[in-house]
Specification:
Radius of gyration: 14 Å
Shape: globular
Distance between the termini: 26 Å
Strand order of the largest sheet: 1-3-2
Strand content: 15-25%
């Protein structure tokens, strides 16, 4: 079990790129903070930029906090994209792709 209170997207990306599969993930509220607790096992899992912010396991969790968590992630990524607008490059492309996916995830809920 892993609990990352910041840079959760980087943890998911690291796990997927280093031979780990996220098998379970749940959003958790601690006071005013919202983060996730996840379980990973050795395996192969390729994640898209949007899934670095919200894994398939998180979306499948059925938690009533998933919608709020998605909105939180989308808002954070929107700020990053806004800050990178006009600069272009791989970082802008990555966050733009993640933002598009997060919006689609929210729309499907």
């Amino acid at each position: 079990m892993l609990q990352c209170q910041s840079s959760q997207n980087e943890l998911r990306q690291y796990l997927s790129e280093h031979g780990w599969e996220i098998t379970r993930e749940e959003p958790v509220r601690d006071g005013k903070f919202l983060y996730t607790v996840l379980e990973a096992k050795p395996g192969c899992q390729s994640l898209t930029p949007g899934q670095h912010f919200a894994s398939p396991a998180l979306l499948a969790s059925g938690s009533p906090l998933v919608g709020e968590y998605l909105a939180f992630c989308r808002q954070a990524v929107e700020k990053v994209v806004l800050g990178l607008t006009g600069l272009g490059g791989p970082k802008y492309e990555y966050y733009s792709a993640a933002l598009k996916e997060l919006r689609e995830m929210e729309a499907m809920r």
